[in-house]
Amino acid sequence: MPEGQQFRQFEAVAVMDAQDRIRAQENSTGTVFEVGLHVPVGEDAGELRSLFAAYAAACGFSLNQEFDFQAGRLLFVPVEGERRGLAALAQFSLMRVVRDMPRLRAARPIARSSPVTVSFDLPAADPLSREPKVAVLDGGLPESHVLGDHVRRYFLADESADDVPEYVAHGLAVTSALL
């Protein structure tokens, strides 16, 4: 077949079923999963969250809405429940994927430069838009920092753990660079 013709040919077309949505590892024993939900255009993510929470509860799963976030038209929600209930959970029609919750990895930051003290002023005005939302998963932030209102939502992965000074310095540098 000529190369140009290959682009016109479909190899397979199939309806996505519940099993296609499950991306959890079979040999894993975890009970915490990340669910990606499609938020229909013009619909409220909060309403979708409520509908899914009721459905998930009926399937034996609980949601932790403190850690959910929306990226574009996708809402990512952490759920906890038995792995054997995933097939029922995946029947939710607006679900795109359910997968094992990604594990956070600790890694010592690599020093690529030496600290330089440069004076600067943060903008006093409100941002032009609060629409872009970004998650920074890094070493954390020190208890006192200059970013103030520019960081709207911050939480620790483990509130009982002590801060590692190098990690929070790196986290502050990454967050500052992003902003």
TrEMBL record:
Q: Which domain of life is it from?
A: Bacteria
Name assigned to this protein: Peptidase S8 and S53, subtilisin, kexin, sedolisin
